[in-house]
Design brief:
It is a single chain. With 188 residues, the protein is mainly β. It has one domain: Methylpurine-DNA glycosylase (MPG) (3-methyladenine DNA Glycosylase, Chain A, Roll). 12% of the residues lie in helices and 31% in strands. It has three helices and eight strands, in the order H-E-E-E-E-E-H-H-E-E-E. Strands 1, 2, 3, 4, 5, 6, 7 and 8 form an eight-stranded antiparallel sheet that branches. The chain is globular. The structure holds a DNA duplex (13 and 13 nucleotides).
DNA sequence: ATAGCGATGTTCT
DNA sequence: GAACATCGCTATA
């Protein structure tokens, strides 16, 4: 078992914050890009009214029922792609929505894909476009596929807030933001 | 700086 | 027919 693999498991809201600070590496069309994950959201199964798996399996959410490490990619509002990582064993639906990152490799490629130089990865649709994640990657594994999660988290603080863009179970604080630990604070 | 709105695939009522 | 785990453009301030 890899070190990253051991970070998955447990309820989605427990696994989600563990992914913060890790690297999401993309090798698509022969181009390498990578980000450090800084914003994620947890989605559960039948017990989470905001989850795509709340009503049971469908053609769209099938990947959520795969083993931990499975990528669940869905189309949002008919336009954008959004990527999740499954964190529970096969048969138990779960998802950690990847909502934001900081580019650490392939910045030129990312800016070309995004068609701009700002707001490269802040938002699930933007993050997917930056790393060229599409429906083709639905069901692939983040341990051996074209999109991988690697490394160990850098030191930082995790802040929990309510999930955004949903209308049900809005009170659950299942959105997690990574605040890097300052290496040095000249003002303190 | 904030508000409104159009685009549009899949699911749900 | 309506809602939706969004985004980028446009208008108004």
């Amino acid at each position: 078992m890899t070190s990253v693999e051991s970070l998955l498991g447990g309820e989605a809201f427990e696994a989600a914050p563990r992914l913060l600070g890790l690297r999401l590496v993309s090798d698509v069309d022969g181009e390498r890009t990578a980000v450090t994950l800084v914003e994620v959201e947890a989605y559960g199964g039948a017990d989470d009214p905001a989850s795509h798996a709340h009503r049971g399996p469908t053609a769209r959410n099938a990947a959520m029922y795969g083993p931990a490490g499975t990528l669940y990619v869905y189309r949002s509002y008919g336009i954008h792609w959004c990527a999740n990582v499954v964190c529970r064993p096969a048969g138990t639906p779960s998802a950690v929505l990847l909502r934001g990152g900081v580019v650490v490799d392939g910045g030129d490629v990312v800016r070309r894909r995004r068609g701009r130089s700002d707001h490269l990865c802040d938002g699930p649709g933007r993050l997917a476009q930056a790393l060229a994640i599409t429906g083709d990657h639905n069901g692939t594994s983040v341990f051996d596929g074209p999109l991988r999660i690697e490394g160990a988290a850098a030191p930082g603080v995790v802040v929990a807030t309510p999930r955004v863009g949903i209308t049900r179970a809005v009170e659950r604080p299942w959105r997690f933001i990574f605040v890097p630990e300052p290496v040095d604070n000249p003002r303190a």
